[in-house]
Amino acid sequence: MKKAILISILLLELNNIFAQVDTIKKGAYLTFFDFKKNTPTSQDSFIIILRQLNYDFDLYKIKSGNKTIKNRVLKKYVWGIYDGHNLYINCYKISFERGYTKAEELGRFIYCKAPPFMSLAQENSIKRSSYNFGLVGGLASTAAVYGKIGDKVNYIIDLENGIPNLLDKTYLIRILEPYYDLLEQYKKETNQDDLATLLKYIRILNAQKK
Fold first, then answer.
1. Which residues share a beta bridge with 89?
2. Predicted TM-score (pTM) of this structure
3. Does a structural domain hold residue 184?
4. Where are the alpha helices (DSSP H) in 2-119?
5. What is the pLDDT of residues 117-172, one digit of tens each?
6. Interior/surface letters 160-191, b for 16+ CB within 10 angstroms, e for the rest
7. Looking at the domain assignment, is residue 137 inside a domain?
8. Residues 67, 68, 72, 73: what is their CA dihedral angle, to the nearest 10 degrees?
9. What are the distances in angstroms from CA 124 to CA 26, 98, 142, 188?
10. How many helices (H) and strands (E) does the chain have?
């Protein structure tokens, strides 16, 4: 019985994703609210370049194909870009870091990975190491800082308000509170902190929101 329910949820989720992707208009969205209203600010073509950085996930640099949007606007001000296949969200709008990340889950709750938010002290530590010891020192300091931050790179953007939140146990329990049965089911999970478990419930919520 549980297997049949799980299959039904997965099929519903796939149908929702395909329906949602079909309705998103191609273009650049200057603000989150533009994306929510599905009104791109510009329908320019874009050049998407994979950046080689020290993360375990991909980040992208995006340029205007027709040069109708200046690079500084793309770097800091554009919320996101949909190219007809993928939604790329500006990391500057999440953790004030440069680059775009690809949304891995679409729905009421958008899931993506982005560089972790660093404190001013952590940023200064990396800058000092780079200044004093060059590239190697900078990389070593960066690795040390990321080691302290841990896996705080998983973000959820709630389409109700556009606010990015770290995806963790605390956040999931908060958004599951209106759904008593789901919350109780989650509390019985043996691996509540695992990303796979957290995403399972995000997908169930997204399927229910349609």
1. 80, 101
2. 0.76
3. yes
4. 2-23, 32-37, 71-76, 92-95
5. 654 343 444 344 434 444 343 343 444 444 444 467 899 999 999 999 999 999 99
6. eeeebbebbeebbeebbeeeeebbeebeeeee
7. no
8. -150
9. 38, 17, 11, 42
10. 8, 9
Q: Nearest 10 degrees: CA dihedral of 165, 149, 60, 72?
A: 80
> Is 74 domain-assigned?
yes
Distance CA 41, CA 104 (A): 23
Per-residue pLDDT tens for 16-55? 443 444 589 999 999 999 999 999 998 888 999 998 666 7
Tokens of 23: 């309705």
- Strands (DSSP E) contained in the chain are 27-29, 46-51, 59-64, 80-82, 87-90, 100-102, 109-113, 154-158, 164-166
Domain total in the chain: 1
Q: Does residue 200 contact residue 107 with C-beta atoms inside 8 Å?
A: no
Provide the CB-side half-sphere exposure for 44 (13 A, CA). 21
Residue numbers of the domain that contains 203:
2-117+152-208
